[in-house]
Amino acid sequence: MTDLNPRQIADACLDALCRLDPILATSLGVNLDDDRLPDYSPAGADARAELLRATLDDLERSTAAGLAADPAEAQCARLLRERLSATLAQYDAGDHLRAVGNLHSPVHSVRSVFVAMPAATEADWSVIAGRLRRVPEALAGYRAALAAGVERDLKAAPRQVEAVLGQLATWLGEGEDGQAAAGAEDGEGEGDPSWFEVFAAGGPEKVRPELAEAARIADSGVRQLRDWLRDEYAPAVQGTADAVGRERYLRSARAYTGADVDLDEAYAWGWAEFHRISAEMRSVAEQILPGATALEAMTHLNEHGHAIEGAEEVRVWLQELMDQAIRDLDGTHFDLAGPIRKVEAMLAPAGSAAAPYYTAPSLDFARPGRTWLPTLGHTRFPTWGLVSTWYHEGLPGHHLQLAQWTLLADQLSRYQVTIGRISANSEGWALYAERLMDELGYLGDPAERLGFLDAQLMRAIRVIVDIGMHLELRIPQDADFHPGESWTPELARDFFGRNSGRPGEFLDSELIRYLGLPGQAIGYKLGERAWLAGREAARAAHAERGEEFDLKAWHMKALSLSPLGLDDLVPALSQL
Asked: Quick check: pTM over 0.70?
């Protein structure tokens, strides 16, 4: 019988997972001299599942021995049990054997790990070179998993494969037609350099030849995957539906939300939010361009509103936006510990998905939190839609919450503040953070406020089309868009285009993302709803006791809670 309490069991599981998944270790800032990549083959997935089952067994023994009686231990035990069970449900269903998509998949992890690795010394770059040489092996394991999925009739949809093929072409420096430059099949010849070549060229001169050779080896692995996806996998998955159905959707939504979502209620609520936000957008659009619709006002802002010229220039502008938020919010609305006061604005590597994103700091804060802007080849950046987005990605959004959790890793557990995080909690907080900045007056400019509302509307549309497409639900009869018809990806793209000021390539990328990650996109608005409900319940409880509600104190207590799923979040927040 184990004598470990739940937090010790959770951290032991994290340490074991880091040994199985060196990319996870790098993201946490541990084992930084390890140049391995994960085993993405079916055998590698089996090993991870075996570890999770053993951890659950240890947890049950610990609970039976009374080692989870302490409230902090009980909370960790509940989270660990729920997270491992949700992951194993996906494993048992074979979802890892069809993991193809434009945002989160093994192939994306294999590339993104390199920008998270230390790169200050020649020794650091030698580790990078070693990992570059392992790319073909890692991607071969990924191919084996997808091939096993085909054998079990667990296939990704063609739309996902096409999107990834396009990304791989960009990584390889190929043209828009997907054809390699002459001689590029063996890493020679004219044409654009590959992403790995460009990355390796940034290394110290002494190890640059080693890095260049390692980059060519990495490219060979990407090229082999590209060719296999195009020539073998794509034909094998023809006819696979985009819609995953209610059973798989619920399984995936549980992993992203930590809740058993009432999909029909969420779908109806998404429509209500869509109508509420649309009405508010019409009012703000009138302030920008009298007589204009919201879409007309956003088009006007794209063409004539304030914009930053140049990719590096917009990066600097975003950095100053976050630095100013830190200066304004610290001590007034939040208490920001020293390490949290540093966050870096970065430009996302070419070939990324279109949406901005955030990466959390390493556990020791040696690598700071970072926001990432995909430029999509653009050189002009209208700012009306960026301000609210960077409050979401940076301060007081993702960076504040995830860095605060990192700061509390020893108080909670390293597991809870890293892989125990739940998407809908974090995305809900980040969307709540945008709303908070509006409440605090930071989005008083009509253009920037329209950007905030456009972001809110996009998240409401996500609830509608993500559930609608995957469950093939009908559009309400009272809607002014194809009433009574069943949702398809084509209708969803049309609906999105009519109701968003985002560029077309962004909307195309988003649609692929929703189809490839069922249940992830709904977590933003459902999570925000939970955060708002928890705040109002806490405010009401304070009023009932005759106490003043201190929003700053509530925020800091809320940000110091263990990560919680939506089943547990509102009750916990209401008691603060």
From this structure: yes
